[in-house]
Amino acid sequence: MDFDALLASVRGPVGQKTLVVTGAGVSLASGIPTFRGPDPGAVWANDVTEKGTWAYFKRVPHESWLWYLKRFELARGAKPNDAHRALAAWEQWQRRQGREFLLVTQNVDTLHEQAGSQALVKVHGSLDRARCTQRGCKQGPPSGTLPMAELDFGPLHADPSPESVPRCPACRSRLRPHVLWFDELYTEHTSYQFEHVLRTAKYATLVVFIGTSFSVGITDRVSEKGLLNGARVISIDPSGVSPHQGIQVVAERAEVVLPRLVDALAA
Description:
This protein has 267 residues and is of the alpha/beta class. The chain has 10 helices and 9 strands. Helix 9 (217-222) links the parallel strand 7 and strand 8. Zn(2+) binds at residues 132, 137, 168, 171.
């Protein structure tokens, strides 16, 4: 798909409902390694399917926390790139047109928020939040979280052990990162807004995937033919490879093509 066809699809008919789904590729230009991508910093090979699990946390909660904190620190120093800013501008253009728009990100970084996106669902959680492991606690599932900035990781860094893992201020159970692990379900926490995403996908007339490998549950569900009711589906991916039949590909980097797109919309 060339740029003119992309622009025409985004402009679309009056009343178009747009769903955008972003993956790790949209944050690569901000210096955050992907999980599965071809970039040198990709962490997929680092036993992610073992360490990114509830089972691993239960076995060695201190090692789980240290593994996540290392990645979180890298993400905290990152800044939004041109793709993040363009997506926020795209949302504003949609609003001015009186059109529905939802941005769903698989990323746990905070770059979309920093760039100004408001119609945003973080379907895999967020690195700036933690939650209690005790279900029903006000700081835990199904809906509770607390700011990561309020936690003291000094004891954990000084003497890593299960006993030095931060505790919930409400019930003293262990705290965990507020992220969706590989052995968990999207229904684990209401903030993932899984049902809202599926409802939006069902009624969307345009679905755009950006920087995703289509290797996690949310992309599989959203791209299902039985869910999408005749929506045009586009993937922005520099590889130029279509992940599924019927998905048109824009072979460009997101940080290059998206600013050009919003400039054309505003013209």
